[in-house]
């Protein structure tokens, strides 16, 4: 009788453990299957606003020890550059001072945006300092755009210019984007617009 009772208790205990483990495994499987389907719209919207919707890059010759600054302005936002590194839309990722505190030897400045609001954008280049007194300084600016919902960015505009004196600020281009982040036909020009002295946050 005792042997039968012992066997019955062990069977019940094993059966209970098996049922609990199967229930737990089923719950974990259910969660894993449902996880990709939880609030997909919110995930997609966050992806659309990820940093780098628009990037603006400035390059000038690496052998010229000059401090050239990139300034950008998004619609309805304050200009972003070395003295105001972040706005509502753009952020300055790198402020290059020439050879000063530079481990790479590259003369390069870079900004990126979070989102691409409709309206006019402006991109300026400013020669802050040039101790070498080498002129002119050729500069290249590249604007790339990743439209909302797209995985990769495409080159939108390329501008080349020459800086001929210290303190010079030049507008490389101004352009407009529509509400779908398309370049508005006929909107690209380089009529001067000062950005550097308008960098106070609103």
| Uncertain parts | 42-50
Strand content: 25-35%
Give a quick account of the main beta sheet: strands, pairing sense, barrel closure. Answer: 5 strands, antiparallel
Structural class, please? alpha+beta
Helical element count? 2
Which strands sit side by side, in order, in the main sheet?
Answer: 3-4-1-6-7
In CATH terms, what is the fold-level topology of the largest domain?
Lipoxygenase-1
Order of helices and strands: HHEEEEEEEE
Number of domains: 2
- Cα-to-Cα separation, first versus last residue: 88 Å
**CA gyration radius, whole angstroms:** 29 Å
Helix content: 10-25%
Silhouette:
elongated
Overall pLDDT: 83
Number of strands: 8
CATH architecture of the largest domain: Sandwich
What is the C-level CATH assignment of the largest domain? Answer: Mainly Beta
Comma- or semicolon-separated keywords:
alpha+beta, 21% helix, Lipoxygenase-1, 202 residues, three-stranded antiparallel β-sheet
Write the layout of secondary structure elements.
Layout: H1 2-34, H2 40-48, E1 54-59, E2 67-73, E3 90-94, E4 108-113, E5 119-129, E6 137-145, E7 154-163, E8 169-177
Antiparallel strand pairs: 1-4, 1-6, 2-5, 3-4, 5-8, 6-7
């Amino acid at each position: 009788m005792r042997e039968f009772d012992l066997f019955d208790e062990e069977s019940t205990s094993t059966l209970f453990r098996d049922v609990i483990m199967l229930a737990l495994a089923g719950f974990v499987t259910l969660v894993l299957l449902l996880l990709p389907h939880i609030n997909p719209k919110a995930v997609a919207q966050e992806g659309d606003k990820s940093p780098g919707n628009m990037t603006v890059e400035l390059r000038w010759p690496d052998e010229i020890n000059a401090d050239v600054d990139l300034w950008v302005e998004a619609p309805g936002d304050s200009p972003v550059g070395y003295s105001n590194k972040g706005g509502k839309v753009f952020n300055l990722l790198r402020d290059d001072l020439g050879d000063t505190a530079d481990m790479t030897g590259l003369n390069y400045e870079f900004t990126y945006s979070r989102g691409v609001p409709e309206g006019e954008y402006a991109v300026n280049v400013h020669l802050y300092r040039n101790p070498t007194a080498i002129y002119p300084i050729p500069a290249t600016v590249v604007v790339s755009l990743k439209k909302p919902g797209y995985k990769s960015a495409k080159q939108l505009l390329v501008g080349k210019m020459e800086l001929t004196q210290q303190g010079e600020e030049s507008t490389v281009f101004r352009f407009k984007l529509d509400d779908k982040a398309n370049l508005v036909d006929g909107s690209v020009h380089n009529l001067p617009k000062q950005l550097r002295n308008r960098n106070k946050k609103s």
